[in-house]
Design a protein that fits this description.
single chain; 196 residues; mainly beta; 5-stranded mixed beta sheet; 3 helices; globular
């Protein structure tokens, strides 16, 4: 999805002539820094954000564990819970080491990988076996270790940034991690609008 948006953020040249060593600053959180691209694995521009796969058509029932997530393909006008009650994009959890040395893997794939784990997050990720995860987990960037795979997160003390379907941006505190309110915000069609 991020690659397809390039012409709409004045990046037509990169869209038409994709090269692997050009960062797209719009897709990078200024508090994180780093080169903004990977030259190995999934080489190319990186992003500090992930799309909500429950809105943008999650199809993977393998390692992303999205078995119970319907393939949605909603337009902004047809989201049952309303665009202001549904998350479209959020900042993803990654370690400072990943930011400094983008490898294009380990939940930090580049913008050309589509719905891979690095550019999308969804409801049913249940932690990575290290005791640090629950569904819809939100973590502050940690200097080392896990807790990044499939989770939301940011470098900010107050919480992580999320973009709703209506274009509004909100900071959601880390205390909302794994709560029913966070589930409500993620699902576009659950009929629940009590948000974090």
């Amino acid at each position: 999805m991020f690659y397809k948006l390039l012409p709409f953020i004045e990046q037509d040249n990169l869209f038409n002539n994709f090269v692997t060593n050009v960062p797209v600053r719009t897709y990078l959180d200024p508090a994180r820094g780093g080169p903004g691209f990977s030259t190995v694995n999934w080489a190319g521009a990186a992003t500090d954000y992930s799309v909500n796969l429950t809105v943008f058509g999650a199809r993977d029932s393998g390692w992303n564990q999205l078995v119970n997530v319907p393939n949605s393909n909603y337009s902004v006008a047809t989201i049952p819970d309303g665009s202001s009650n549904t998350m479209f994009v959020g900042s993803k959890a990654i370690t400072p080491q990943q930011v400094a040395n983008r490898q294009g893997n380990n939940w930090d794939e580049g913008i050309i990988t589509g719905g891979a784990g690095g550019t999308g997050r969804a409801y049913s990720w249940q932690g990575n076996g290290t005791g640090c995860g629950s569904r819809n987990a939100i973590f502050r960037d940690r200097p080392t270790g896990g807790c990044n795979g499939g989770s939301w997160g940011s470098p900010y003390a107050g919480g992580a940034l999320f973009l709703s379907g209506d274009g509004s941006v909100r900071t959601i505190n880390y205390s909302a991690s794994g709560t029913q309110a966070m589930d409500n915000y993620l699902f576009p069609n659950d009929g629940l609008t009590n948000l974090p």
